Amino acid sequence: MLQLIKLENNNHIFLVNHINEYLNPLYIYIPIFDKTTFKMKDYVYKNTLFGDEVASVSGNILGSKKIIVNKKHIPALKIKNDFKENNISKKRVKKINSKEELIELLNNFNLKDIANIILSKQNIKNFIVSSIDEEIYAINEFIILSNYYNEILDTIEYLLKLFSLDKSLILTKNTNSKSIKNVKSIIGTYPKINISLVPDKYLISRDEFICKYLNISLDETLILKTSEIYKIYKVLLKAKMNTETIITISGDAIEKSLVINTKIGVSLKELLDEFIKFICDDYEVYVNGYLSGIKIENIDEVIITKNTSSIVINKSKKEEESSCINCGACKKICPVNINVKYCYFNKLSHKNCIKCGLCNYVCPARLKLKEIVMSDAK
Ligand code: SF4
Ligand code: SF4
What we know:
By secondary structure, this protein is of the alpha/beta class. It contains twelve helices and 16 strands. The mean pLDDT is 89.
């Protein structure tokens, strides 16, 4: 049975409600996953696709460098931004009349992930828009709702018509209730859209937990995040390729947390140099979640991809692993009831592991349990 967990808040971290911009970087890096070859000085136009990766600026290729994506080292092209923003692949949006046409459009604009979510739902009866970030130190989804609520509400209304549905529900955490005054003040003019507060518990952002909480069928429920609705808005109304992404940078090793709308492909090091003041020298960096993300050894190798949502920079805890004391906390907290200790000591991965990181979080012996249990997890 799925269970939701209330986590302690870290009092050192204050999340903000303002979006900074980093849209004119000097360089961007494009990961190259196939064998395509490029010559130095080749010119790259903004919006050109390299497989599923997009050139978020235009400019010449300066060289290549090794970067790390999902724990794997891969080559990336280094592009020097010429700030011309040439746009040879600008596409015109035709009128969309059906779910199938929307899916085709999203695929054409390199939003395959969103197209696949919609495609996977054959019979949509419920349409939920979630402004809940999974990461406890991130606020991207909520900040998009509170900053772009007109665009979000208009797009939801448009999608309701397209899917022939008569209502949609926006979910937000009850801890955000005071910050959604602006959304509440306008939502009355959208009679088909309601907003609902949910408890501030870890993992409630995940589709299976949302449906369990609302007591609705996962198969019949389309759940899109506010960031995904905003991307659909940009494609539908502005015919804009997705070359930007919104990320939260937070943690107790930096002076203040920030939310940044940045070009895809910028180096994390350059982004931190530009925006972040460290308050200590000894810190740990996590990409996409302190609990469920990946700890980074060398920030020089990290670029912001379209899938980056948060960077957490916490003071180094220097916690040594010690012996298991058989407390049972890992099994008790696991939301999908895996016998975590058994898997760890028998070096077994478990297909049900959802990589939430709660077992590591509670283990008093500081064992790296998740890393073993999740290894083959999808
Ligand atoms: S990371 Fe996997 S094993 Fe650990 S608590 Fe989460 S689901 Fe369970
Ligand atoms: S939480 Fe850690 S110490 Fe406790 S039983 Fe699990 S592995 Fe052992």
